[in-house]
Amino acid sequence: MSPIPSQQVKLLLRFSAVCLALCGSQLNATAAEVLTAPSRILPASGTTWCYSIGSPQPSTMTLKGVSAGIASYAIDGPGAITRIEEQTDTYTSVNATRHGQRKLLVFPLAKHRKWSDEFTEDLTSHLGGDAEWQFSYHAISQSHVIGTEKRHVGAGTFDTFVIERKIAWTKSNPHSSSKLLQPQKCDDADCTVTGYSKEVYWYAPSVGRAVLRAYSQSGDSDFIWNRSPDELLSNASSLVTELVGYGRAASCEDLHPPLHARVPSAPWYGFPLLMNDTWEFLMQRNIAPE
Q1: What pLDDT does 79 receive?
Q2: Against a cut of 0.90, is the pTM above it?
Q3: Where is the signal peptide (predicted)?
Q4: Pairwise CA distance, residues 254 & 29, whole Å
Q5: 100-108, long-range: CB < 8 A, 24+ apart
Q6: Least crowded by CB within 10 Å, which of 57, 176, 178, 229?
Q7: Cis amide bond preceding 108, omega within 30
Q8: Is 151 in contact with 128 (CB distance < 8 Å)?
Q9: DSSP SS3 for 250
Q10: Within the chain, where are the H helices?
Q11: Which residues contact 189 (CB under 8 A, 6 or more apart)?
């Protein structure tokens, strides 16, 4: 199968820096100690998390402060925006256009806990330069804490909760004022696409964030939702984001190599393989912030 387009790699780089809502696998893993997380506790302001998707330069998130349940982070990395805000109790980026709730985490975390969420929001995607476009995103998600695990990553070894998240989504109403995207057209009158995603987070309460995340999407729910954490982590169509440094900002200057991080080397199953000039193609290939 063909590799993903270079502009999609740029999207993945941007996405990894902004939406590392990173939140078992048996690969390099053993059973975690008895693990509890009655609430989410963030470390001191100034703490930095260094994340990699396999590129030479990691993306960094530095906690600037927490106020009224909202954490602010400064972001530095390939193609990344400079600042994001996150709801501390749900591990979810703030979006003023969101209707409904997006909940990546629900506390207290415990094995077998399940929850669901549904929301609609407007999103902006960047293709480089002034190629910026917007679309509406609707998602229905089911999350499940499938267990706990001692997970080895570039930044060290952490006791984690393993959380599976299955998402059914639609994307619609694409538009842009960018000259580069003026030739884009809709293949169908409703200009809407439907897809399915699955992600697994290895969330470490000791650092207040996930240390590993595997994500893939497909046009076929059975194909993607039935994958185990091991299969998702090793699959060629998965985006895998990994913590490779933690603590002081300087910790990102001398990093251990990632053990798992990488961008997809194969296309997502169930979507067109060849790039075309339709909005549907861009929406299918875009990773929404799940």
Answers
A1: 59
A2: no
A3: 1-31
A4: 24
A5: 102/139, 102/141, 103/143, 104/21, 104/23, 104/143, 104/163, 104/165, 104/201, 105/23, 105/40, 105/163, 105/203, 106/143, 107/37, 107/38, 107/39, 107/40, 108/36, 108/37, 108/38, 108/39
A6: 57
A7: yes
A8: no
A9: helix
A10: 6-18, 221-225, 229-234, 279-285
A11: none
Closest CA to 164 of 113, 126, 130: 113
CA distance 286 to 56: 23
Averaged over successive runs of 10 residues, the pLDDT of the chain (290 residues) comes to 41 43 44 84 94 88 96 81 90 96 96 97 83 94 97 95 97 92 91 95 97 95 92 94 87 80 89 83 80
% helix, strand, coil for the chain, step of 5: 15, 45, 45
Pairwise CA distance, residues 201 & 220, whole Å: 21
pLDDT of residue 18: 41
Residue 205 tokens, joined: 């309460």
pLDDT at 28: 46
Over the Cα atoms of the chain, what is R_g? Answer: 18
What SS3 class is residue 139? strand
Kind of pairing between the strands at 70-76 and 59-67: antiparallel
* CB-based contact 134:176 (threshold 8 Å): yes
* Separation between Cα atoms, residue 174 and residue 135, nearest integer Å: 4
Q: Alpha-carbon distance 267 to 248, whole Å?
A: 37
Whole-number pLDDT of residue 289: 64
What tokens appear for 100 in the block? 């409904």
Give the dihedral of Cα atoms 107, 111, 114, 119; nearest 10 deg. Answer: 50
Q: Can you tell me the distance from the alpha carbon of 268 to that of 207, in angstroms, rounded to the nearest whole number?
A: 32
Amino acid at 255: L
Q: Is there a contact between 169 and 290 (Cβ–Cβ < 8 Å)?
A: yes
What Cα–Cα distance (Å) separates residue 187 from each residue in 142, 168, 182, 280?
30, 21, 15, 7
